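#struct-help
A.M.: can someone run this one for me? Single chain, 123 residues.
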Amino acid sequence: MKKTVTTIIIVAVLIAAGSATYGLVSADHVKEPQLNEQNKIVEVDEVDVQDPSTVQTYPEKEILAEKGYADYSVNVVEDNPNKRIIVLQDENGKNRVKSIYIKKTNRLKVIEFDKGLIFNEVI
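D.P.: on it. Structure tokens below:
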């Protein structure tokens, strides 16, 4: 009788543990909400970070032009309240430069894929 009760308890615990983890979602698949100027939540898909007029207003655009990347095409990879990541491509479409702008500290890091870190300052 003890074996039967013990077996039933073990099976019940395993079933309960399995159903508790069934609905969990990993953090990799969760979208963080973004805030617009009025601090209202905006869906990530609604933000048009590829708009050329928006890209021209970025503070890091001036530094990138000074470094000789004005003719490269701009691909905004990420733009959220904390940081903005831009990848610059040459005329052949090859990724050449990565720009990481930390908004809270106004720090800009520019990384050439061939040479490594070439700029790391507060702007």
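A.M.: thanks! The helical segments are 2-22, 52-56, 60-66.
D.P.: also worth noting: Strands lie at 34-35, 41-42, 73-79, 83-89, 95-102, 107-112, 116-122.
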